[in-house]
Amino acid sequence: MHIVNSNSKSSVGSNHWKLNLDEGKVVQENEDGGNSDDMMSLLTGKVVENGEWKILTNRKANDKEKSVHGVQQSEHSEKKQPSLTCGKPANETQYDHLRGITNRNEHSHIPEPEVALIFKKKGNKNSQITVDVNELEEKLRKAKKEKPKSAHVYNQIGNFWRIKGNTQLSIECFRKALSISPNNPEVLLNLARVLFNLQYLDDAIFLTRRSLVMQPATQNSWLQHFTLGEILKAYGHYQEASQHFKHALDLNPGFQPAQAHLREMEGIPAPSVTQYTLFIILFLVLGVVFGVITSIETKFDDRRGG
């Protein structure tokens, strides 16, 4: 709920969660956080390497760079570990026909730091949570080693890459998870939200509806309904979107982003009734004219026959 509350376009305070460049963590921004915007610094900085968003730290004064044979090197260079991936991409899944998945190598990279809330420990009521991205990466690396064929682990690594902003790797991890568990509602919904952010609305709505169908009756499906409401609203299908937002509120009372969407749509004028009326009148007129012409031709033929 907190993830969507932070990530929703209509929710208030959507920038409360940010990447801390100095600490390499996703942290909650203080209300008096001043004018500094670490996320903007991340987006405007030259920090993309092989499609991965890097968190750069400020160099200390004594950490100077030196030139060796014309190549800039850092005095305190760290040994780099291989990037956390889901291994060899899945050969195929039953969802590869979707355009957003087919074009996965062409997508722009969209960091989603709010997704870090997925990894919040259960029972932790402290809202001032910080998520250490490096520590999270090591935990996922260990989990992958222990369970190399776990759809849940691949799903979590996919969410990790959503935080980092590598859309291609996140989709590949979700594909890997779906190759193991094709009807996993959580994986389907996570992939749907990635494609929704990329504006592949047809793909997103297909995956979300599939997730809703596959959601066990014993589990709450409010997030599927809320996501469907967001996608349908983006389509301009306000009546159907409103129904899904209301259903989400029935399952999760007081959920503010759904309430905000409903309030916003109440201010959107409905399609003009006059347009529908004119269409119906025109259709009826054409029907009457066709009937009259047919009747005249029939009578004319009868007279000639007589």
Describe the structure in brief.
The protein has 306 residues and is mostly helical. It has helices at 2-7, 38-44, 99-102, 133-146, 151-164, 167-180, 185-197, 201-214, 222-235, 238-251, 256-266, 273-305, and strands spanning 17-20, 25-28, 48-49, 52-53, 65-68, 71-74, 130-132. The strands form three sheets. It has a three-stranded antiparallel beta sheet with strand order 1-2-7. The protein has a two-stranded antiparallel ribbon with strand order 3-4.
Residue share in helix: 40-55%
Remind me, CATH topology of the largest domain? Serine Threonine Protein Phosphatase 5, Tetratricopeptide repeat
Shape assignment: elongated
Count of helical segments? 12
Helix/strand order, N-terminal first: HEEHEEEEHEHHHHHHHHH
How would you characterize the largest beta sheet?
3 strands, antiparallel
According to DSSP, the number of beta strands is 7
pLDDT below 50 for ≥5 consecutive residues: which ranges?
9-15, 31-36, 57-78
- Kindly report the average pLDDT value: 78
User: What is the first-to-last residue Cα distance?
Assistant: 80 Å
What spatial order of strands do you see in the largest sheet? 1-2-7
CATH architecture of the largest domain: Alpha Horseshoe
User: What do we call the CATH homologous superfamily of the largest domain?
Assistant: Tetratricopeptide repeat domain
CATH level-1 class of the largest domain? Mainly Alpha
How much strand content do the residues show? 5-15%
Region (Disordered): 58-91
Pfam families: TPR_11, TPR_2
GO cellular component, one term: actin cytoskeleton
Transmembrane segments: 276-296
